[in-house]
Structure formats: structure tokens, C-alpha cells
Amino acid sequence: MDQPIPALREALRANYLRDENEALRDLLARARLPDDAAARVQAKARSLVEQVRASPRTQAGMQSFLTEYDLSSQEGVLLMCVAEALLRIPDAATADKLIRDKLAQGDWERHVGRNKSLLVNAGTWGMMLTGRLLSLDNDASGNPGGLFSRVAARVGEPVVRVALRQGMKLMAEQFVMGRTIGEALARSRGGESARYRHSFDMLGEAAFTATDAERYFTAYEQAIDAIAADATRQSPFENPGISIKLSALHPRYEYAQRERVLAGLTPRVLALVERAARGNVGVTLDAEEADRLDLSLDIFERVFAAPALAGWEGFGLAVQAYQKRAPFVIDWLIALARSQRRRIMVRLVKGAYWDTEIKRSQVQGLDGYPVFTRKANTDVSYLACAARIIAAPDAFYGQFATHNAHTVCTVLERVAPGQPFEFQRLHGMGEDLYERVIAEGQACRVYAPVGTHEDLLPYLVRRLLENGANTSFVNRIADAAVPVETVIADPVSVVAREDDARNRKIPLPRDLYPDRRNSGGFAFADEAVSRPILAAVRAQLERVMTVRVNDADAQMAGAAVDAASRAAIPPAHARAAALERAADLIEADRVRLLALLAREAGRTLPDGLGEIREAADFCRYYAMLARRHFAHPEELPGPTGESNRLEVTGRGPFVTISPWNFPLSIFVGQIAAAFAAGNAVIAKPAEQAPRIGLRAVELLHEAGVPRPALAFIPGRGEVVGACLVADPRIAGVAFTGSTASAQAINQVLAARPGPIVPFIAETGGLNAMLVDSSALPEQVVADVLASAFNSAGQRCSALRLLCLQEEIAPRVLELLEGGMRELIVGDPADLATDVGPVIDAEALAMLEAHARRMDAEARLIGTTPVPAGLTGHFFAPRAYEIASLDAIEREVFGPILHVVRFEASRLGAMVDAINAKGYGLTMGVHSRIEETVELVRRRARVGNLYVNRNMIGATVGVQPFGGEGLSGTGPKAGGPHYLFRFATERTFTVNTAAAGGNASLIAASE
Ligand SMILES: Cc1cc2nc3c(=O)[nH]c(=O)nc-3n(C[C@H](O)[C@H](O)[C@H](O)COP(=O)(O)OP(=O)(O)OC[C@H]3O[C@@H](n4cnc5c(N)ncnc54)[C@H](O)[C@@H]3O)c2cc1C
Predict the structure, then answer these.
(1) Total-model pTM
(2) Sign of CA dihedral 956, 959, 960, 965
(3) HEC profile for 972-988?
(4) Whose CA is nearest to atom 33 of ligand 1?
(5) Cα angle 82, 85, 86; round to 5
(6) From CA 720, how far away is CA 729, in angstroms rounded?
(7) Is 964 among the catalytic positions?
(8) From 255's CA, which of 143, 523, 527, 870 has a CA 20 to 30 Å away?
(9) Does the Cβ of 320 fall within 6 Å of ligand 1?
(10) Are 109 and 142 in contact (CB under 8 A)?
(11) pLDDT tens digit string along 682-723?
């Protein structure tokens, strides 16, 4: 019985992170061929590979170049860095720096003469063209790494730069069909190309702004019209077509913006597809990241069902076999096609974002991976999906996109005689293989990217990664060192031989750390998991706020100190066990905590999830440290006849005072550290978020932290905070908050009679990001938006000052302005919200006053619209260009970003000027030049420096967090030294020879 479409969709959703072994059991059965058929596939694949290997083009062309410079060689990686950045760098000085930086690092001479390929023999990409400028033979000896200096010295840096740029363009042209659609169409009609069909791709990656999306839309329209002129066949399958990236058509094509995307993007896609249908030009929607799959299926379903397309079979979708949901997508598509009684063009690919998916899942702490972890598993999935597609000719026109000879031969073995289908390959790849396949009369389409050199860089890098990986078929077929048997190995047998389908070299996200469990997260795009969680959060939103928390008074604070002073502290292993239980309980309570964080502290749902995870991580990390350092004394070496031991132990009651901006994670982190080190704790939550604090303390008690050892004292800092700090029985204070409050506490502590106690303060920062012109503007702006405006800019790590090298500033500012316009300010409990409210009226007034000052003194770059009717303490993000660093002196805690330009030669001076402000918390650098990064690293006086990423969201045990100067005392929270500051050290020395002499020495002497 066929299942209904919605049920198939639910099945698909339920398998987002399917168990890999279970998946492979299913897929192997579907992919396995009878023995005789499998033997025919082997024989044909072998013959193809041998012919391809013998071809002069494989020997001398791009493929052998990429094999020589594969990604396991340092030079391969360096070349990819140059390829990624060089063409977009606007100024010569930075371009030269990049070249010097990368070419000086590699051992280029090692590659000379190792290969018959002309390209390889040219030695480097620069040498591809500078070959005319110097003879490599004369230079092939000498110091590795000296090649660049010698070439540069002889011909001058500008010549090398021009030559290298040419080399990059040559490289790029291998993968691009033409700079314009006209150029690409013309090329597709002539020479060898004429034997192929084409699907044109208007290069360009995710749109960042509405303007970018509009530009891509127009480019698609124009391309469709141009292609239509060549679409002269009756069947869209035989005509040239177009591939569309949905992320290029909407600036926020992401799951969290689902409603807005469906409403805005569906009519746009439909307009393009209708236009294409009028010209009989086939359209395929490209497959992008796993998080976007569900959204793309929604759009596909709506457009496919549009009455205007009735009877037209030119609309299609790419399906990635590396995703565990792939077979379910195929089943869903079959039902969809049958419901409309017409075929879907399905392009089966393996998938181009594998490394990104793995990293993302680890960062998000998912329960598993949305993609397979072994290459052979992806191959098996591909073969199983192909079998299913082939078996449903009424539902699909199969388009098998692969460059893998075994995959090709399996498809050929499976299709019925006369069954319509086609192969597909990427322009610049697999020519030799398909030359032979199309000679047998099979149809093949070329995916033909169209665009300027600058546009193709991200595409080029994906192709280089794909080809450069030594697991990739294209790489292996060109590498004579890999035996043919290995190249054509049947993935079904390879997988069947393994006991465990999972790749053990890739730990599950929860097992990322060898010494503790990683906190668990979930992807909001994983609807089967997120939908019930979000519904439960909504149901709790108001209820959680009915809890009443009364302020404590001085007397209660005194009583808590009293009890804490007498509290029996459990031994280290019991403390660790209690903290680990607390981590589990915190994670289990995430629905209530998410609701509390949204309502009481204005935290958005992703921020809330981040906090819950961080709180759990703190508990597990400090538990691990307590076991490691506090459970047993350390034996120290010394003279014979004596034993020496060092013990770390608690100091006495600690006061922890936490801020409202991380009301859960910092609150729990401080308590967990103080307790793990063997102290009783008196915890004072932020005045604005007592309910969250109360809930955390309830969970810690439930987990086994003894009640007398953890007291909850809510109230105003000036009242309970002040009297706790002043109490002489308090053995230490851990504080996170403003620099001014930290200084006030410090003075109270200093004025106290009796022992001098530790004071651990984490305070604010005037955090800067430095961007040179080798950076990728889109990546910079994505990181700037996250760093400056996430959590409404109310993180101590948040970006306050963006420093742009003047050459790159215009493009970055244009994107920043457009990107800010696309942010959503609103209710933090709504998943679509990017920026929630600021904490209270006081914060709002402070930000408004600062904005008024900036309006008068600086230039407004951009702002985010605030929806009409929104009530509460909302402050729209703003960015201002200031003339110099003199315009800001202190941290302004909220979503206001300051931007300043600098001359490339003054980068070091910029760092000094930032240091001179006295803060030292976080800093970001965006640059592809290691020398530049290194300069900043050596010179910056900050606690946390981030390169080519955002600068918020430090992970416990991975990026221990905390600053220097005005930004805090250290040691870093979530770092290996933190607990020691809460502890005291004692040594214990015993003269073991005192009674009865040194028996063990005497026994040990020969
Ligand atoms: C016409 C065409 C259109 C395309 N459109 C898209 C698209 O819309 N979206 C998209 O994502 N890609 C797309 N691609 C790219 C495509 O994903 C890659 O070209 C393809 O994966 C290469 O497969 P292969 O069979 O040629 O090579 P093979 O070398 O046999 O396979 C390489 C693939 O195996 C997978 N892999 C590698 N290592 C592992 C591992 N450890 N565990 C699991 N899997 C692994 C990866 O998917 C990798 O790309 C398209 C390709 C073509 C030819």
C-alpha cells in the first residue's frame, strides 16, 4: 500500500540523524546486485578506468595537477588558500603579502619533475605562467621554500602577482563555462561540448542582502530567456536547462525563517519555473546544507503542484545521497510525482558539503550526523537510491550525477533497455570517463557554472576540496599509485565487510572530548525533535513566570554564611558525581529553562539552548577536574626516606555573584567551580533573573549538592551582595559583571580585616575585530552580525568595534547595511527572532542616549527595523562609522557597533591603540594571511582571540574564557586552571626513615 504524502514526509523527518548501522542494513539490501551483474559492473568499470588512465588528457591535465597537489600535501592546502582569496583582494600590497605568505611556506621544489603533466611540471600555479619568465631547470635545486623569494627577486613581486592571478584564472576557467550566459551558451554549442546537454548554473552563493537576492533573480530570468532560445527540442529532458540555488534568492534562506521564506520565496521560484516552462527549459533546484533540506522540499512541493505547470515535466530537484534522509526523500518524491501524474527530474548527487556537515553537527552537539561518515556508505546509499529511482519510471526522469566509474556502470547495469535517463558531470571533471560513456549512446549533461572569476571562488574551493580529497574518485583515477581494484572496489562489498558501519575516526558529537561527555544539543531544523520541544516551551512561557522569588535580606545572608561555614563538604568524587548528575538534570529540564530564559532574561531560543549546554558543560568539566586534581594528593619526588604529597582543597565559603546576561550558564558555572574545588557556596543571582537562578539551585540540590553547601541568596547587589562580600567568614568571591562593580567589591575585600582572600572577576570588554582586505566580505559580515547583535549585543564578548582595512570597507559596509536590515527584532520565544529585548528600562535609556550621541558625532551605517506595535525594552541594532578610536572610551553594553577604517600599513598601530583602551577580553581577526594573524596574536593583549570566525560563544574546555586588564583577573572560566583559584594548597611531608630507618632503600639496594 502506498503511504500518503504527509506520512512519508514525517518518516523523512524522523530520520534526520538515523543510526548509521540501521541505515546501512536497509541500504545494502537495496543496493546489492546479483553476483553475475556485480561481476559485469566490475569488468566494465575496470575497462573504463584503464582507458581513462591511458588517456593523454588525464596524464597531463587538471586531474593530474590536482593529484600532485592533493589536500594531504601542505602545498595543496596552500594553493587552495591562494585560490580562495587572491582574485578578490582589491589592493596589490595585500595580494603580494598573501602570495609571499603562502608560497614561502611550501616545499614547491619537491613537486618539480615528479609527474609527466605539464601543469605539474610548471611546479606551482605561478609557474604555470611564469614558466616563460624563468627556466625552472635552473632553479630546481636549492632550499625548499626559497623559490618564491628567488622568483620575486628576479622579476619583481608585481610580475609574480599578475602571473599568479592569471594562473588562478586559468584554474578557475577549468571549472567555469563562461563569464556570461551568452559566452557559456556559445561554448556549449561548439566542439566536444556539442555532444553533451547542459544545465547552466548562475554562479553565486547565498544572497546576503535583499539587493543581492534581487540581482540573482534577475540573472536567473535573463539566463532562462537566453537558454530558451537554444531549447529547441520537444522534451525538456533533451533541452539545455538551468540549476537554481534557493539560497541565492533569499537573504535568509534558513529554517528559523521558515514562514517568511515560504511566503516570500515560493512565488519567486514559481515565477522562474513558469518562465522556464514557457521556454521548455528544465529547472533543477540544487541541494544545499542538511538544515535546508526540509525547507527546499516545502518549496518544491508547492511549486510542483502549481496548476500552471500541469503536464510539464521539466521541474526537478537534486537529492544528496550522503544524507541519511535520501531514501526517504526519494519515496516522498515518488508519491508526489504520482499525485500529479507526471515525472520529476531527479538529480542524484552524493553531496558537496560533507566536511561542513560533520563540523556543524559537532558544534551543535547533535545526537548523530545527518550525513554518512564513511565514503563507501555514501556510495551504497547512492546505489540504493539509484535503484529506487530506476524502478519508478512513472515518477522520475533519472539524472545520475557522478564521476565515479563504478557508480556509472552500476546505473548502466540497472536501467532497462530503452529506459529514458541521463548522466551528469561537472564542467571540467570526468571528461575522459564520459567521452567513452557517451560514445556508447548514453546521454550526459554537463553542469555548467557561469560567472565572473570573483563569483566562482567559493564554488572553486568546493571543487578543489572534492578533487583534492584522496578518497575522491576523480583524485584516485588520476593517481597511478592506486591499484585499479581499489579504484573500482564495489562499495557494497566494502561496507558488508565492516562490523560497524560508522567511521570510528569521527566520534559522535557527544564523545568529542576524551574525558567528559559533551553537552547535547539539537538542530532546530530537525523538526521531529524540535517541534515538540518548541510546543512544550510555548506552553510553559507564562507559567514559568508565576514563580515568586522574594529578595533575601542581610539577616538571611548572614544565616546562609553561618550554615555554609559549618557545612560538611563531600569528598571530591562525590562532588564530581553530584555535578555530573546536575548536568543531566539541567539538560533534561531544557523546556522549562528555555521558557524561563526567554521570558525572564529575553534570551532567544538558540541563545537559551546555548546557555543550557554551557551550564551542563561547566558541571561536567569541573567534575572532571575535581576528580583529576582534588580526589587524591599528588606524590612529589624527593630524597629517599621521605614522602612528600601536595593536596589541593577548598578554602571555605565562597560567594558567587553572577550577571543577568548569562543568568544560567555563568550562575551555574561559578557555583560548580567553587563546589568542585571543595567549598560551600552562597550564590547570588542577578536581580533581573532570580527565577532562573532558583531553578538552577533546585536542580543542583536535587543532583546531590548538599543544601548547607549551596545557599541561594537573591537580592540587590547593594544590599545582600555588599553584606556577603564584607562578611569576614567569606573565603573568596567569584564575580562576573561590570568593571565598576568589580572594583567596588575589590575595595570592600581589601578593607576587610583578617585573611586576604581570592577575588575572581570577569568583567567587560571593548572588543574589536580587525579585518584586512584578504578576508571574505560575506563571511566577515556574517560573523559581525552574530558577534555584535546576537543576544542584543549583551554579551561581554560581543563585538563593539569593527576595524576595516580601507580597501575592503565599502563592500563590507554595503553588506553590513543590507544584512542588518534582514535581522528580526522581536519576541525571543519566537524562533524567527534574531534580536530580543535589552534587559531593562535602564539599559534601554543608556543605549538610546549613546545612540543620540553617535547620531550627532558619527555616520549611521545601518539599522534594523523594529516591527510596529512591538512593546517592551527593544532597541534596534545600529552601526556607526566613527572617525577614530577616540570616539569610544568604554563598553556600551548592547547592539551598537562602531566601525573605523584603517590603512593597511597601520594594522599594528591599530592593535596598540585598542590595547591602550585598557580592556583585554575578546578580539577577532579576519585575514587569510598568516603573517597578519601572527602579528595580531603577538601584539594583542586579549584573553580570547578568534581568527576567521565570530568572537562569541566560547565553549567550555575548548576556548576557556576570560580577559586581562580592565576585563578581569583570570583564571579563565571553563579552563584547566580555574578551580585552583578556589582552592588552597597543602603539602604533607613525612620522614619515613624516622622510625626504624629506611627499610625500603635497604631492600632495594642490590
Ligand atoms: C551535475 C552535478 C550537479 C551537482 N549538484 C549538486 C548539488 O545540488 N548539491 C550538492 O551538494 N552537490 C552537487 N553536486 C556535487 C556532487 O555532490 C559531487 O560532485 C559528488 O559528490 C561527487 O561524487 P562522485 O560520484 O563523482 O565522486 P566520489 O569520489 O565517488 O564521491 C565523493 C563524495 O563522497 C562523499 N564522501 C566523501 N567522503 C565521505 C565520508 N567520509 N563519508 C561519507 N561520504 C563521503 C561526498 O559526498 C563526496 O562528494 C553535483 C554534481 C554534479 C555532477
Answers:
(1) 0.94
(2) negative
(3) CECCCCCHHHHEEEEEE
(4) 350
(5) 70
(6) 15
(7) no
(8) 870
(9) yes
(10) yes
(11) 999 999 999 999 999 999 999 999 999 999 999 998 889 999
